[in-house]
Amino acid sequence: MKALEGIKVLDFTHVQSGPTCTQLLAWFGADVIKVERPGVGDATRKQLLDVPGADSLYFTMLNHNKRSIELNSKNETGKEILTRLIEECDVLVENFAPGALDRMGFPWERIQEINPRIIMASIKGFGPGKYEDCKVYENVAQCAGGSASTTGFRDGPPLVTGAQIGDSGTGLNLCLGIVTALFQREKSGRGQKVSCAMQDGVLNLARVKLRDQQRLDVGPLKEYSQFGEDVPFGEATPRAGNDSGGGQPGRILKCKGWEQDPNAYTYFIIQAAVWEKVCDVIDKPEWKTQEGYAKAPERLDKLNEIFETIEQWTRTKTKFEVMDICNPHDIPVGPILSMKEISEDDGLFATGTMVKVDHPERGEYLSVGCPIKLSDSEVKVERSPLLGEHTEEILVKVLGYSGDDLDRVIGSGAVGEVARDAAE
Ligand code: CAO
Fold first, then answer.
1. Which mutation among 92, 96, 138 tests ligand 1's pocket best, with the greatest number of atoms within 8 A of CB?
2. Residue 385's closest CA among 5, 2, 93, 22?
């Protein structure tokens, strides 16, 4: 049995943020019914194409384990089918532009009227306020949520990160909101609305930078490299390069081969508890007792010198050798892994974090599996659905259409082209 077995999800999501959420629900065992515009589908199906004619990796990697129904929700019969889906489902998830669901004729009040037990979960770029009507993509959220202004080097422009913290990060929040609301429904019997704004999701992940904003009022941020460089702090939390965001200083340091390999680097943390071991490993035993180096607070104005010295040592080792040498001493280090290295990592395949999936149009491809492991609810990653692959199956088996009624619905143009022979 899977954790969410029996839960039906009307998946009205597209692009990345919403699909991340519904993919997790599907992996936990929910029956996720993806509603897509006839003949078009989720825009990502045909974005960043690599195999001609096949659904893109963008789409396939975000829509595993779902079923797809083509449905024009602006057509009268389409609205009838959507109403039936709302009646049948436990959860409706959407991430349309603000107001799109209202314009379709399905505001929250109407949805609740149709099914008082339903949980309606929405992602928007911003919460209520002056930007609430804006359309938002990942990098807008990274900028508006405080991440970009605090990422990058002090002497360079703000930077966005490669990790999709606005989209996939907010999808995670929404997923937690949904299962929490399902848990509450067990007791209250009622559904509720779950709302997540991408700006809020990014800010939540940038919490430590708001911490630093407030610390600036009482003095310099001593763990930032610029403190040791005597560069004055301004009014806002600055960009801190690769400095650690916590109380244990850290840096990205060059390793053997860095001249040719852009990823021959390690992250190296000089955790106070293992300082003496660091000194031994890099052959600087005198720093263990030397004034100005022996105690962690004394080291904060010398971080450049300390990390340059450590780097002289890391440059003589590969990033994996650094890991092998430091780990037995509990010195926290981490190799900078490229996507190529990750995609060839047997350990990640063994845990199901990386998976190989077969697809009828594109053949085998790599994907990221479920990052959350439940001991009693195993995840089997299955391919994403083709556009409208389950239209008839859902009309018949989930919504109970049959005979003339089924013919009427299929003939109405609301559900795209249905390959009846194949489906029957
Ligand atoms: N049948 C009929 N119409 C449909 C439909 C269906 N099955 N599915 C969608 N539509 C319609 C919508 O109702 C909308 O119509 P209106 O403009 O008349 O309201 C229209 O398609 C376009 O929807 P949209 O505005 O949501 O899509 P977009 O491509 O223009 O914008 C995005 C995309 C992501 C910017 C916007 O949806 C958004 O801001 N979403 C919220 C924030 C979010 O999740 N962003 C992250 C996206 S991942 O990077």
1. 96
2. 22
Which residues are CB-neighbours of 254 under 8 A, at least 6 positions away? 264, 265, 311, 314, 315
CA 223 vs CA 177, 220, 284, 304: distances in Å? 35, 9, 22, 11
CA of 97 relative to ligand 1 center, distance in Å: 5
Decide if pLDDT at 390 tops 50: yes
Index of the ligand 1 atom closest to the CA of residue 36? 7
Any atom of ligand 1 within 6 Å of the Cβ of 192:
no
In tens, the pLDDT along 340-351 reads 999 999 999 999
* Distance set, CA 207 to CA 150, 249, 369, 385 (Å): 11, 18, 27, 37
With beta carbons less than 8 A apart as the criterion, state whether 174 and 123 touch.
Answer: yes
Ligand 1 pocket residue status of 72, Cβ below 6 Å: yes
By CB neighbour count within 10 A (0-12 exposed, 13-18 middle, 19+ buried), where does 122 fall? buried
The Cα 238–Cα 252 span in angstroms is: 18
Query: Any idea which of 36-40, 128-132, 363-367, 419-423 has the lowest mean pLDDT?
Result: 419-423
Q: How far is CA 103 from CA 96, 99, 108, 170, in A?
A: 11, 6, 12, 24
What is the Å distance from ligand 1's center to 63 Cα? 17
Q: What is the pLDDT of residues 261-284, one digit of tens each?
A: 999 999 999 999 999 999 999 999
Atom 19 of ligand 1, residue of closest alpha carbon = 100
